[in-house]
Every structure is written in structure tokens, then in C-alpha cells.
Write a structure and sequence with these properties.
By secondary structure, the chain is of the alpha+beta class. The chain has 6 helices and 8 strands; from the N terminus they run αααααββαββββββ. The strands form 2 sheets. A 5-stranded antiparallel beta sheet has the order 1-2-8-3-6, with no helix packed on it. A 3-stranded antiparallel beta sheet has the order 5-4-7, with no helix packed on it.
């Protein structure tokens, strides 16, 4: 999920994109395979969307994920530098994901890079909600590199434990869930290849 301090801005941008395309909440929910209530919470800044949810809504709206972070991304430069201080506020203390888009100003990307601080696992898979299961997959290929700490990732029901320097590459369509292990949240570099061609 996003850094909660930026959730409202993402929600506003999502609502503007949806209404500009003449889509109702129900229509976008059907196109993205998310629930109407989930999208409504995101638009109102009450829910921080996961990477998978962002990818699926972006595909449904035919926009780049960066547009949710910066509506002017389409008019941005052909390169972008993301400074460490651009990450914004400190991680949320509610156990949620902290997600930072590393190239929000870069238009028409064929890859989506993120810095992720996964939450700690708080419940076994058997009691996870249907919503969590729904948004744990997306189109494209995904690479996950552990920058610091340790993580557990479930891929289609099988769990793998990764440490600093470990890298995992997999199909984003495989149901997956990432959680931090240990006392501090891990930091993970995630790059998602959408397969879309670069627009010149």
C-alpha cells in the first residue's frame, strides 16, 4: 500500500481519471476485478491501494501507474531522477505497506519501479480476506530484490524466505503476498514490466 500521507492525492487522481473516461465505480470495479467498495475507499483517501490494485486500475483506465501519483506525468521528461529525500513521510505505524513510486514523472514506461516496505504478517492465509486475495496478482512480469532486511513471499501457496541481496523474478499473474520478517520492516525494490511499448 501507499504511504498513507499520500493516499488522498492518489484517490483524487483516480477519481478524476475515472470520471474523465465516463466510468462509474461499478464499471471500473468490473474492469479491474476489484470491489466497488474498495475503489470508493481508495478515491476517498481511506484505503491505501496495493501495487496489484494500482496496476489493475491503470490497465482498466488505459493509463500509466505513474498518473495516479502525478497527473502531469504524461507531459514529463524522457528521464527522471528520484532522490532519497523525495520518499516523503516516515513509514506508517499501522502495519500497512509503504510504497514509493520511483519514476512517477517518467511517461509511458514499459517498467514500473517501486520501493516497498512490506507489512509484518499478522494473520495466517486461512483468515485473509477475499479482497486481499483478489488484489495479490496483476498482469506483466515482476522482479523483487531485497535491499535490506528479510521477507517472506508466498507464490501460489508456496512460501519462500529471502534475505538482503536475494532476488526473485516471477509472473505477476501468480498470486503472491510479501511480508517483512524480523523486528524491522524490510526494504524491497520491485520492478514490474507491463509489456507495453514505449510511446515516442
Amino acid at each position: 500500500m501507499l504511504d498513507m500521507s499520500k493516499t488522498a492525492g492518489v484517490g483524487d487522481n483516480l477519481r478524476q481519471l475515472r470520471t474523465a473516461k465516463g466510468l462509474t465505480l461499478d464499471r471500473l470495479a468490473g474492469m479491474s476485478e476489484l470491489t466497488r467498495g474498495y475503489i470508493s475507499l481508495v478515491e476517498r483517501g481511506l484505503k491505501a491501494p496495493s501495487i496489484a490494485a494500482l496496476m489493475r486500475m491503470a490497465a482498466a483506465l488505459d493509463v500509466n501507474v505513474a498518473t495516479f501519483f502525478d497527473p502531469k506525468a504524461a507531459a514529463g521528461p524522457r528521464y527522471t531522477i528520484h532522490r532519497h529525500e523525495d520518499q516523503g513521510a516516515a513509514p506508517a505505524a499501522n502495519g500497512s505497506f509503504d510504497l514509493f513510486a520511483l519514476a512517477a514523472a517518467r511517461p509511458h514506461k514499459s517498467m514500473e519501479p517501486f520501493l516497498l516496505r512490506p507489512p509484518f504478517k499478522t494473520s495466517p492465509p486461512s483468515v485473509r480476506t477475499r479482497e486481499t486475495i483478489q488484489r495479490s496478482f496483476h498482469s506483466g512480469e515482476e522482479m523483487l530484490f531485497v535491499v535490506s532486511g528479510r521477507v517472506a513471499i508466498e507464490l501460489d501457496g508456496e512460501e519462500f524466505k529471502l534475505e538482503r541481496g536475494d532476488c526473485l523474478y516471477f509472473s505477476g499473474e501468480t498470486p503472491h503476498q510479501v511480508n517483512s520478517l524480523g523486528r524491522q520492516k524490510a526494504e524491497v525494490l520491485i520492478v514490474i514490466a507491463t509489456g507495453k511499448s514505449e510511446k515516442r
